[in-house]
Amino acid sequence: MSTRGRLLANLTLHGSLIPDADSAYDLGSPSKKFRSLYLSPNTLHLGDASLSSDGTGIVIPAGSKVGNDSVIVGNDLTNKVKGDTPYNITLNQSGDLKLLTGTQRWYSPFNAQISGITSRLGTAPTGSSVGIRVNINDSAETTWTFAAGSATASIADQTINLSTGDYLTVDITSIGSGTAGADLYTQFVYKQT
């Protein structure tokens, strides 16, 4: 049986492995893959882009993208996407509302700007309104009400700036005088600044 073109043992190189033509050959195939690829921390070149390692993680070049979104390159890859990409967080109080100083806290993971607030009730109050107050670091920032019989609140456009580590809480300041409102959901739309 001919073994021409087949390697029957490990191949040990004493120099670089260089093809005789540029971009002409593959290493493996879709159905015949290599199992693992071991590289030193030096650079892996992909076309005109390059990846390398600093020993604990991969160094991603500036201008890299995840889908169509630019990623942050630098000291904080946990921020993931920066710019106009919107995020949202919802704070809720389940069941019949009670006068309450917000116990749920949401901490901003980065400098951010809240650009909108949407608030809804599962059950509308009767008799009088439900009052809501949003605090930043326990300091009142904005308020609104759910009118008697209404399960949605009209909240004017908001621009609230947060620094890394600032936290939001939602207080319930009134609950209705006939039937208390129930199941409060307050959604904040924000982006990294």
Q: Which percent band covers the strand fraction?
A: 35-45%
Identify the strand order in the major beta sheet: 6-13-8-11
Q: What is the structural class?
A: mainly beta
Q: At the third CATH level, what is the topology name of the domain at 87-192?
A: Jelly Rolls
Overall outline: elongated
Radius of gyration: 28 Å
**Arithmetic mean of pLDDT:** 80
CATH hierarchy: architecture of the domain at 87-192 = Sandwich
Determine the fraction of residues in helical runs and give it as a percent range.
under 10%
**How many distinct helices?**
0
CATH class of the domain at 87-192: Mainly Beta
Sketch the topology as an H/E string, one letter per element.
Answer: EEEEEEEEEEEEE
Overview in brief:
The chain has strands at residues 44-46, 49-53, 58-59, 65-66, 69-70, 87-96, 106-107, 112-123, 130-136, 139-146, 160-162, 167-175, 182-192.
How would you describe the overall organization of this protein?
There is one protein chain. The chain has 193 residues and is mainly beta. The chain has no helices and 13 strands. The chain has a 4-stranded antiparallel β-sheet, with no helix packed on it. A 4-stranded antiparallel β-sheet has the order 7-12-9-10, with no helix packed on it. The chain is elongated and about 90 Å long. The termini are far apart. Mean pLDDT is 80; it is low at 70-81.
